[in-house]
Amino acid sequence: MPETQTTPSLTPHDPSPAPAAAPSPAAAGAALAAPPPGPAAVRHVFDFAEGHREQAALLGGKGANLAEMTRLGLPVPPGFTITTAACREYLRTGAEPATLGGEVSAHLAALEERMGRRLGRGAAPLLVSVRSGAAVSMPGMMETVLNVGLTDSSVHSLAAWAGDERFAWDSYRRLIQMFGATVLGVDSGLFEERLSRARRAAHAPTDAALPAAALRDLAGEFQELVRAEGRRAFPQEPREQLDLAVRAVFDSWQGERARLYRRQERIPDDLGTAVTVCAMVFGNLGPDSGTGVAFTRDPATGQRGIYGDYLQNAQGEDVVAGVRNTVPLSELARLDPASHAELRRITAVLENHYRDLCDVEFTIERGRLWMLQTRVGKRTAAAAFRIACQLLDEGLIDEREALRRVTGGQLARLLFPRFDEEAAPAPLARGIGASPGAAVGAAVFDSATAAQWAEAGRAVILVRRETSPDDLGGMLAARGILTSRGGKTSHAAVVARGMGTPCVCGAEALEVDAANRRLTTAGGGVVREGEVISVDGGTGRVYRGEVPVVPSEVMEYFERAGQAAGAGSAGRAAASRAPQAAAPGAGAGAGAGAGAGELVAAVHRLMGIADRVRRLDVRANADTAQDAARARRFGARGIGLARTEHMFLGERRPLVERLILAETEAERREVLRELLPLQRADFTGLFEAMDGLPVTVRLLDPPLHEFLPDLTDLSVRVALRGAREAGHAGSAGEGAGAGDAGGAGDAAGRADARLLAAVRRLHEQNPMLGLRGVRLGLVVPGLFAMQVRAVAEAAADRALAGGTPLPEIMIPLVGTVRELELVRAEAEETVAGVARARGLALRIPIGTMIELPRAALTAGRVATAADFFSFGTNDLTQTVWGFSRDDVEAGFFATYLEKGVFQVSPFETIDVEGVGALVETAARAGRAARGDLKLGVCGEHGGDPDSVRFFHRVGLDYVSCSPFRVPVARLEAGRAAAGA
Ligand code: PEP
Ligand code: MG
Questions:
Q1: 362, 504: one domain
Q2: In terms of C-beta density within 10 A (0-12 exposed, 13-18 middle, 19 or more buried), how is residue 459 classed?
Q3: Are 210 and 199 in contact, with CB atoms under 8 Å apart?
Q4: pLDDT at 820 over 70
Q5: Of 516, 550, 584, at which residue does a domain stop?
Q6: Residue 301 located in a structural domain
Q7: What is the mean pLDDT of residues 117-122?
Q8: pLDDT at residue 741 above 70?
């Protein structure tokens, strides 16, 4: 959520200020001559008038955008930014750069001169805000200190200057409170306790109703608290306040909240934060002052217009904390039409300049508007698609830019199901739909419990009056978030949107009673902790119990789009053409919600652009005809991986057991002969579903013991049978028929014993590194030949039936070209045999997976026996890192992520430095050996947005992923081609 500050008036009550004291916006934009940095010294401080928006890495997003607004001549209070590099040095060495103090002094002196006022001194003391600002927005995750410069003495000058005693003491108690908590580590709850006590004593319903005397007393109490808990007196030297506040902002980069947020958002840990130091302007100087936040479009729906919240006579943190309820900006038009008009003008300038939705924080000080922050605003996934198309229509961006404005992650979110409104009960309440999506879970009233319950595997909805940054752990753990206060710009709303978690906020009809762990509805109904509720972050509705879900309209669109494409016409052109037939917008359907039509149309349009510009093909990992058909509807251009092991399970398991137990060549051949037609039918189904498109069939990969009963289970079964039979033998002859029962039991027993012997024989300590993949093909005679034969015969059948089968045969787990040569020779012979027998020409490319480091390192040689490579990045990651893929993610990855060993699991997103380097090396060597070598990837990474862009960069031909991820991969492939 935005860190707003309540600031401004440079000279609030002086009707004829000295020119230097009240710079015009234009003057504010004029560059303040930067103090010379000293020979060869690296500069750590830049005036707002010196930078621009492209410098977020150095100045942080906030500093860079303040500089940009200053350049544009917008009314920004003057100030300067301390760079992220200074923060990095501080974090690395534990001390600020040696030259930082001097640079700050020089910039502060220049600021003081410009304002005609001195920090915390004189008749009109200058106050500053000290705010964090990383290169990537981390709203509310780091610290801010406002009103720096106020002391026991300057508070009186401020009161006289503003002509407002209450204002001055309120500002002072806020400073001590923020400084105490942020800089000196005093528990913020202790300040809150004293504040509520003061409110009760003064019969004040809100802080705003506290009189000056009460605030003065509070300032005193707060100072005592700081002395007792912060182990030092609140500093009375303004410059010391400033330096300590800057250091606290640096330190807040390493705060728990910030680290958790970075992990969630995959923001690197070593960026550091910049610090902006800005002359304060004040929104709490009376009814003609106030503060607010605004978006140039609705961040939830993309609706054009200006959208936001305003709070009269308040400082910024009041808006964010939801302490008082804000009013919509339309109300500002009534309260202060001139400022409202000026805000509209400025937001239009910003949107045209940034060519995107912007959000701003502003303060009005006695009728004068000041801009405190802007940035390209966060938005929901739906809004991202709609806004990209709107900007495209408005001519502000081109098609490629439009593609860069949406992400595969956002598209994935749009594919989630939504509530079936027909089946929903009457809602308990309706709040603001702040972050879309349907969430069902147990109501939980505090973050710690939410995190605990989620850890234990329960779905929870975090219910709070409002959230604060301390709730981050609970918000991350929750399926959905519900608050009774705050608007679309509240902390809950902004953070939930960022995380893609459904959120309803401002459900004011609900009274949330966290202390007693329950909420009460307007009608007096009670929901207690643990009871299931459903929240709809799109419509804002909250229901008791579990509401059934239905597919999203975007998901339905993809299903329809594929059907319209027709079974035989899939492919890139069809994928982009089909949706027109599917009538984007028609898909909104009843109950899909306002704007669903526009959303579907936007998705359709951007997918069309992606399909047109992408170079990577997208295939699917599918091993049933049904999955293949779905993948095709979603725009897959073939199957990149049909795993055949699934074809050996279920009813066919006994056949596989027989194969393994076969004692003679004849027995083994007989089983393979029985398996052949079953396999052929599997492949025929796949070729039919993917007619005209390639289907890569991977020969059997897993170790054979996976098809046999578990060793322990079987051992127990055999042992129990043995014990029972011993018992029977003891009582033999006691009853008729015992002998018969014993005969059947003997046969079963003998079978189990044989099976147990086989399981023991095949048992491996490290089966993933054992007899699997190509090794099976070389060791179990006839197995691969049977599979190849089934592929060839299925292809021949389809071709003779008028279809266009395009099979490819893929060999798993190859480590050396020799393995591939051996299997290839046998496969070619088998295919040739089928072709002869059926009287047709069959050309079936034979390729290999690259999933062992050795294969990657010798790819040039391997390529001599391969028509294609498909990178099996699951096994490649496993073998490059030496991580057992079945164990480590649940085992110790949480600790690795926590300690920053990596930002994301390498099984989820390709490890570019390690696994990625091998992929790149092997791709290059393979192509060098064989120019027409086709290159693809079929590990899980094939559907991961970041990884897809990597595969584009290294020049692969296609990615293959699960059917549901095909749309995401198509979009990301397009984005990669568009330079994302
Ligand atoms: C791989 O290893 O990346 C792969 C696709 O094969 P599997 O996951 O079946 O081992
Ligand atoms: Mg593999």
A1: no
A2: middle
A3: yes
A4: yes
A5: 550
A6: yes
A7: 96
A8: no
Whether 505 sits among the annotated catalytic residues: the reply is no
Q: Return the H-helix or E-strand segment holding 586.
A: none
Q: HEC states along 310-325?
A: EEECCCHHHHHHCCCC
Given 107, 340, 491, 604, which residue is catalytic?
Answer: 491
Atom nearest to 873 CA in ligand 1: 3
Is 207 labelled a binding residue? no
Number of neighbours of residue 180 by Cβ within 10 angstroms: 23
Judgement on whether residues 309 and 277 belong to the same structural domain of the protein: no
| Residue 658 marked in a binding site | no
Query: Which sign, positive or negative, has the C-alpha torsion 947, 952, 957, 963?
Result: positive
Does 251 lie in the same domain as 302?
A: no
Q: Please tell me whether residues 809 and 949 are part of one structural domain.
A: yes
- Asked about 938 being catalytic, the answer comes back as yes
Same domain, 251 and 296: no
Residue 874 annotated as binding site: yes
* Domain shared by 931 and 961, yes or no: yes
Tell me which DSSP letter residue 78 carries.
-
For residues 431 and 794, which has the higher predicted lDDT (pLDDT)? 794
Q: How many CB atoms neighbour CB 221 within 10 A?
A: 17
**Other C-beta atoms lying within 10 Å of the C-beta of residue 675:** 21
What does the pLDDT read at residue 648?
85
Asked if 721 contacts 745 with a C-beta cutoff of 8 angstroms, the reply is yes
Q: What pLDDT is attached to residue 321? A: 57
Q: How many CA atoms lie within 13 A of 432 on its CB side?
A: 23
Q: How many domains does the chain have?
A: 4
C-alpha of residue 812 to centroid of ligand 2, in Å:
7
Which residue, by CA, sits nearest to atom 8 of ligand 1?
874
254 lies in a domain? yes
User: Does residue 434 fall inside a structural domain?
Assistant: yes
Residue of 87, 358, 389, 938 with catalytic role: 938
Q: In the 8-state DSSP scheme, what is residue 44?
A: -
Residue 437, CA atoms < 13 Å, CB-side half-sphere? 26
CA 922 to centroid of ligand 1, rounded, Å = 17
CA 619 / ligand 2 centre spacing (Å): 17
